[in-house]
Design a protein that fits this description.
Helices cover 31% and strands 26% of the residues. By secondary structure, it is an alpha+beta fold. It has one domain (2-129): Cytidine Deaminase, domain 2, CATH 3.40.140. 35% of the residues are buried. The chain binds tetrahydrodeoxyuridine.
């Protein structure tokens, strides 16, 4: 699914609302059941209210009844493909089991990694269940 997800994320990027940063990001997630959902970053005049493309795509999937994602693509125009931010890493971790991540730029350069590499020793639901 790598190629298809990157293509979907590239298309979704065109819908980004990023008038403040001018940094458009597109994303596409593949759910465990085989469905694809896309997203783009959506900024706001109150900057802190902005949402990254990855979380838009993920939340679309979860809110449509999907419970887990297995792959995600992130596409930007950066010279070097860029990785999901810290907040997105934490949110992606909640809904995946060693998620595969494809970070790509518009020239077709792709860096492949996993959520466990980007967010080692994560704080998770299990930690909350471990309390004394
Ligand atoms: N952004 C994303 O959508 N995903 C990332 O992985 C990094 C950052 C957005 C947030 C903001 O709209 C813009 O890029 C600049 O930070």
């Amino acid at each position: 699914m790598k190629k298809e997800l990157i293509e979907e994320a590239t298309k979704a990027r065109e819908k980004a609302y990023a008038p403040y940063s001018n940094f458009k990001v597109g994303s596409a997630v593949l759910t465990k059941s085989g469905k694809v959902f896309t997203g783009a970053n959506i900024e706001n005049a109150s900057y802190g209210a902005s949402v990254c493309a990855e979380r838009v795509a993920l939340f679309k999937a979860i809110s449509e009844g999907e419970t887990e994602i297995v792959e995600i693509a992130v596409v930007t125009c950066a010279e070097e493909p860029t990785m999901p931010c810290g907040i997105c890493r934490q949110v992606l971790k909640e809904f995946s089991e060693n998620l595969k991540i494809y970070a790509a730029n518009l020239e077709g350069k792709v860096i492949e990694t996993t959520i466990d590499r980007l967010l080692p020793m994560a704080f998770t639901r299990e930690d909350l269940e471990n309390k004394k």
